[in-house]
Here is the input.
Amino acid sequence: MKFRIDRDTLADAVAWTARSLPTRPSVPVLAGLLIETTSDGLRLSGFDYETSARATVEAEIADEGRALVSGRLLADICKSLPAKPVDVSLDGVKVSLVCGSARFSLQTMPVEDYPQLPEMPTATGSVKSDVFATAVSQAVAAAGRDDMLPLLTGVRLEMEGSTISLMATDRFRASLRDVPWYPEQPDLSAHALVPARVLADTAKSLLSGADVTIAISSADQGEGLIGFEGVAGGGVRRTTTRLLEGEFPRVRQLFQTQSQTVAYVVTASLIESVRRVALVAERNTPVRLTFAEGQLLLEAGSGDEAQASEAIEATIEGEDISIGFNPHYLLEGLNVMSDPVVQLAFTQHTRPAALAGVAEVGADPDLAFRYLIMPVRLQN
Here is the structure.
């Protein structure tokens, strides 16, 4: 194995691939990054039995071969190299790396012990990379972080015809985002439950390309797997991950309720106000939102503790309402709103509130993204 490559191209590809490596590998070789030189160029791979990452980039290949080295060490070395071409070669049980006057020699791991990476499933369709990245960032805002409930740490993807729906919930809030895409079959109907962390990292890393190809293999075809492929960093990047199993909550039905009160608030103003008032909200205590007389009053803190209040302009349709929310959950939903005004729809103070973006006060909401949040009981 011997090749020459641009320093920035190598560093970027190694860093991206090494991100997927486990911090505590179950077997030592899983801490390794697989380097392969073929007629297609340089291929870098990482795998932890759950998620695989593979980057293929152009390089001047002198000899074909493969080697396995510590992925995190290689990533640290590559990002510190001078801005010059990098020559890499396999010499016995060592990988030699030369860049300008800098020279490194890395011990290899037994490449024959490295597990075979899963194959990319057959392409199901494609989506614009920027649209997909925005949709994923919005959907994962409501995904659970508790590994004791793995089902809720995923994002459910539902493909129906030319639309993908992304849904997530942690029982305290829920998100729903619909995006157009280009299926391989016009009448396609499929679904997958993807780990939210993997989905978010993948969508962000493929943002520089035009499209992201999505491929799903169902459990009845073998192992339930989803793959994502796109162009980034001067080459092709591919990620596969195992699907989560279980019956996901029916998130879409949560949004199908009529509202008694609808309020419109400038998104940036609401975010800033919630952040300020929440400074005095102790852990697990809510911020109170009172909608009345053309304004929104935000309050937090109680008793002898620190207190805060702030009033901002709001347009209110329907009955006045006072409701409490976990400020962290509220901010996570508001921060992924892309419209200048947010519409908040309420039924009563004990029922979930629905948030959606609008172009201006009174306009129909952009139902492409909706965020539902459960209220917190307020102390009188």
